[in-house]
Amino acid sequence: MKKTKTTTKDKILDLLKKEVTLTVNDLTEHLNITHMAVRKHLHVLEKEHLISSEEVKQPMGRPLQIYSLTEKAEKIFPKNYEGITVNFLEDIRELYGEESINYLFKKREQRLTEEYLARIGQKSNAEKIDEIVKTQNEKGYMADVSQLDENTYELVEYNCPILAVAQEFKIACQCETELFQKVLGTEKVSRKSCKTDGADHCKFLIKF
């Protein structure tokens, strides 16, 4: 559920979401605050890359400054990709059986393996781990790693961006473990805890 918007910055983002483009005058009318206050908030939002501005020429007078949301700001608003994905996967399973689901996840694992291997190249074990963490973070996993000894690492994922899918289709977790094994070049990758089992985080023990 979307949280109730309270700050002026949040209200500006909501207004731009609804109206698409607005001027400073538009915002002062909507928010009932001064031009100076609006410009101050707009400046902050522009620095945070949440809004962008464009000059539009007028028949008379100075050009108008028009503000709109950036792609980064669009990501703030609620999405339900997971919900629709789970529904589609359930439909596929019903129509074509469990094997079709296994095939889809294996295809995904294969695609990700190729992507990760291309990024890792011929790096050392420590560099491979760092690249895994970097890639997982780009995908929203909030990953972190700690080195336990010369050849052993613990990888922790504080977030699971596909949690709803993984809870319904545990093969997603299995494929992730196998992905790490293939990309890191070691079979000694084991999942020690999993969010789908009620744990706070997903943890992996990796040995080279």
UniProtKB/TrEMBL annotation:
* Keyword set, alphabetical order: DNA-binding, Transcription, Transcription regulation
Per UniProt, what is one Pfam family of this protein?
HTH_DeoR
**What InterPro entries does its record include?**
ArsR-like_HTH, DeoR_HTH, WH-like_DNA-bd_sf, WH_DNA-bd_sf
Every HTH deoR-type domain range: 10-51
The identity of this protein, by name, is Transcriptional regulator
Q: Which organism is it from?
A: Metabacillus fastidiosus
